[in-house]
Amino acid sequence: MASEGSGLGRNINTALLAVESLIALVIIIIIAAGIYASILIFVSSVKGQSFEAIHTALLNMVDLVIIMLLAADLLRTIVVSVKEGRVPVRGIVEVAMIVIVREMVASSLAGFSVSVMATLAGSFLAIAASYALVRRYASE
What we know:
Elements: H1 2-47, H2 51-84, H3 89-110, H4 114-137
């Protein structure tokens, strides 16, 4: 009976490892596609003549770079979770901060709204405060 439980545990761990590996592979593909898209945006912005086109292209590139940072940070979180058997809280808080910065960039692309930016800035400050607390008190 005990050998069945340990066999089931190994099967579950193997399945979890396979799923996490698949997620890591998808994240790596997203990073590669983001780099390729960034290169295409940069090349097309250099060819464009208007300042507005270059400005929009640069904001799009920043948005893609932030998405790649998110993907890389998620990949790091998955690797740490698998290797150490725990979820790094500081990594998750860092991802939340990056998500808010990305939303700020996306909001500026859609059109500047003071209320949206104020809300995002308040959210960022709250998560930054939680980051400071996690960094100070967590035993990661």
